[in-house]
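User: tokens in, sequence out, please.
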């Protein structure tokens, strides 16, 4: 993204090249998928000039931090996941890259802030498997095969299980893993290191009991001194 949030004539080729290079030996994207992700990036760069969607403006960092990490989550979803709900979608991560990667999966993007929800609708007009829900997650009815999220307080995520979904996939900082894995109502898999990050991991789990996950999670957080 050029200075001031404007794209340049070379951005399309650079965006696709960076994606393909970073994802080499991890997953393969078709030309249509690359183009769909680039179209979202175009919307993101334009809207970001008047709406704070991301503080990252460097193209390479955007590709790695936003798109590659979201796609990395997507490739780890089980094959039986037919519906996914993205809590606090914001700029559309990880939900939109997942929707592009897995067109057979129905993806619901939850965003309580009106202007960001308008952006999400505008940037997903050509993605028929995406629905934007402009509301708080606590008010949503129904259930989904998987709940995904990034940059959302994990106490809030736990408060939504198992009502919205029994299975969770979240991108979190390594430092948070010890606290999350103490939540006894979730059976956690081993954290998966993100190939491009020293600080972020993918953590996936499944609800296994009716324990008070939120209260337990709060009790494990060390008090500030």
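Assistant: Sequence out:
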């Amino acid at each position: 993204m050029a200075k001031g949030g404007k794209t340049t004539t070379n951005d399309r080729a650079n965006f696709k090249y960076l994606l393909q290079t970073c994802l080499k030996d991890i997953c393969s994207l078709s030309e249509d998928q690359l183009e769909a992700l680039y179209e979202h990036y175009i919307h993101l760069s334009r809207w970001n000039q008047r709406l704070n969607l991301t503080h990252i403006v460097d193209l390479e960092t955007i590709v790695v931090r936003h798109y590659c990490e979201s796609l990395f989550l997507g490739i780890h979803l089980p094959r039986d996941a037919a519906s996914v709900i993205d809590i606090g979608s914001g700029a559309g991560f990880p939900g939109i890259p997942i929707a592009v990667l897995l067109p057979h999966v129905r993806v619901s993007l939850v965003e309580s802030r009106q202007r960001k929800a308008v952006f999400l609708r505008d940037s997903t007009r050509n993605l028929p498997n995406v629905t934007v829900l402009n509301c708080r997650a606590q008010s949503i009815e129904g259930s989904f095969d998987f709940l995904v999220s990034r940059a959302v307080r994990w106490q809030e995520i736990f408060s939504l299980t198992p009502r919205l979904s029994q299975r969770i996939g979240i991108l979190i900082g390594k430092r948070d893993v010890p606290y999350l894995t103490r939540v006894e109502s979730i059976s956690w898999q081993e954290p998966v290191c993100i190939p491009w990050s020293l600080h972020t991991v993918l953590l996936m789990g499944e609800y296994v009991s009716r324990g008070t996950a939120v209260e337990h999670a709060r009790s494990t957080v060390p008090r500030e001194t």
